[in-house]
Amino acid sequence: MATSGNDSSEHKAETLSIDAGGTLTDTFLMDENGKFTVGKAKTTPEDESRGFIKSSKDALGSWELDVDDAFPNLVSTVYSGTAMLNRLVERESEVDVGILTTAGMEDTLRMGRGRQSYTGFSYSDRLHVNTHKHPEPLIPRKRIRGVRERIDVKGNELIPLDQYENDIREGVADLLDQGVDEIAVMFLHSYQEDRHEQRAKEVAEEVIEEHDADTTVMLSSEYYPTLKELPRLNTLVAEAFAAEPSRQQLTRVQQSVDDHGGEVGVRVMASHGGTIDIYANELARTLISGPIGGMIGANYFGRELGYDNLVCTDIGGTSFDMGIIIDNDWKIDYSPEMARLLLSLPMVNMDSVGSGTGSYVRVNPTFDKIELGPESAGDKVGVCATETDVETVTVTDCHVALGWIDPENFLGGDMPISREVAEEAIKEQVADKLDMGVYEAAEGVIKILENKLQNDLEAVVTGEGYAPSNFKCLSYGGGGPVHTAGYTQNLNFDEVLIPEWAAGFSAFGCGAADYEYRYDQTTSIDIDADLSMDTAATTAGAELTQVWKDLEAKVKNEFDKSDIGMDEVEFQYNILGQYQGQLNSIDIRSPVSRVDSPEKLAELIDTFEEGYRRQYSEEARSPELGHTITQASVRGVRDVVKPEIPTEEVMGAEPPADAIKGSREAYWDGEWDKTDVYDLHALNPGNELSGPAVLEGEATTYVVPPNYKTSLDKHRVHHLMPEE
């Protein structure tokens, strides 16, 4: 396992970060001096706390500590898991959810949007109508009831609710007869005026009490008061359908910490880039936490080592996640796609494709071609894992057959792997069907995967208007170092970097994430161009200031739950702004916390103008149109102790004797070749190696193909480059 402190001095574990992925659970442990160690174990989806403890034990083993020794000293524990996202992907939950919505909008989930009909599909499938369809709604139509009411886009009442309260009573009674556990209420434009939703909750709770039921009512205006009814309803339903049941998983993780002497609350990685308490109101913000941890870790890594612009790539067992960091910052996506749903929550902008080391390999019988995924073996790895029931070949089976992965070293030898079983399955399921040799077929699978990843990566970078040469590519994840050379080939990145702790990098990022709560509110605040600053400050400025104050109170309430004083919290204020009449807004961090004076409002507008100029051009600025603020946000951030990136003395180019494990035959470019094998963690800074070579760690394998070389710097980061 990777560690930044391998001397024999005593360690006192203080920070614990866990990333429970679809296949493996990674642990990142840091001591009081910023030194860290990384561990890994199989993910246990049915009870993630078991994988959490086993992975923690693996990490602590390098310090000769056990969980009972380490957990009492913990001051911070951050967790990111997959249980919540899996519920959405599989459309399965332990709870039944019903919906009350504005009459006439009952089919919102079934109708969806055109964009939602093709999310998650490959580019080729998006082009053909017959290859994609609307995703299955989370809630069946029979559990959705309409209520006659209407608030308009400005918050004015058009159809009074009090005339139709019987719609609520009948709807709730029907949902209770169907046995629902949660009732989600989403009325049109309740983000502007919530009194109809609040009254609906009061009436619904009266009916629930009459039926002696144990059903909870959730309001979109209390959870996600934002524009666009489909993403808002999807997100509210996700909160009830997936987030609330997942608290049980998180509670078990907390209980496992408590059982081993820990006295610290577990926090969860949130989509906006901070960590929140497991009892936070909006838990759906943690739906996609692991990959976000990687982005946070990459940003911290870049700031510490002077890398301003990074393309982040994370390969796990189920997916390939990509993100871009420019000037040590990332973009926020306010309507992300997740589990084939459009959601209404802020998320660090990332792209993900269903290709990983656990992806299934099949032969399309119609076209006689190899196809990968999108299904994955997940934590069961592949056919080669003889203790599992996997029957379909995976990418990992091909790694094993080609000699890239040592069957005796997988997960440090904790998981039995059979090369013979992998080869036989590849022969039967792939090679024979294509009239190919086993190793030719296995290498073909790898090339197809890496070409696909390369195309996806290039599309993400160039799609944002950049060239790969402007960035350093950071590769991490358990499968990243195996394929880095393949998917970065010919893209001409400035540099390609692989941290030694790549397998635990997302967990490392969770440890670098601040304690942060964020609340957002849709607004429609116009600042007309012909208004004086005095008038604008007393109207638009006062309205925005009040929204910020309300959001600030929500953030304070979350920190109060965790007994964190406001003197420890820094507040940040943002808007989404545009020129009046435009379709799209830009994200602006406000230089002031209040805009109820002409001077402060002018400062905010000047900041918007500068941001618009940078994003588009000076010529595109149009202040004569006036301005509109479409969303307000407040973030509360408490700084945490960050991991220390290792810094060691640079030695010579030759690796030490104890780093050389020997050699074995491996298959490269159609032929077997003698391949040097090294201990990934025994190499010294300054060591340089030429391919073909395999660097084996307990949590990952780093592959250096022929005609490539790698060097290890003083921060234990590998630099991969083609041989000149």
UniProtKB/TrEMBL annotation:
Residue stretches making up the Hydantoinase/oxoprolinase N-terminal domain: 17-207
Residues in Acetophenone carboxylase-like C-terminal domain copies: 534-720
Matches recorded under InterPro entries: ACX-like_C (IPR049517), ATPase_NBD (IPR043129), Hydant_A_N (IPR008040), Hydantoinase_A (IPR002821), Oxoprolinase-like (IPR045079)
GO biological process: glutathione metabolic process
Domain Hydantoinase A/oxoprolinase: 232-518
GO molecular function: 5-oxoprolinase (ATP-hydrolyzing) activity
Gene Ontology cellular-component annotations: cytosol
One protein family per Pfam: Hydant_A_N
Name of the molecule in the record: N-methylhydantoinase A/acetone carboxylase, beta subunit
Species of the source: Haloquadratum walsbyi J07HQW2
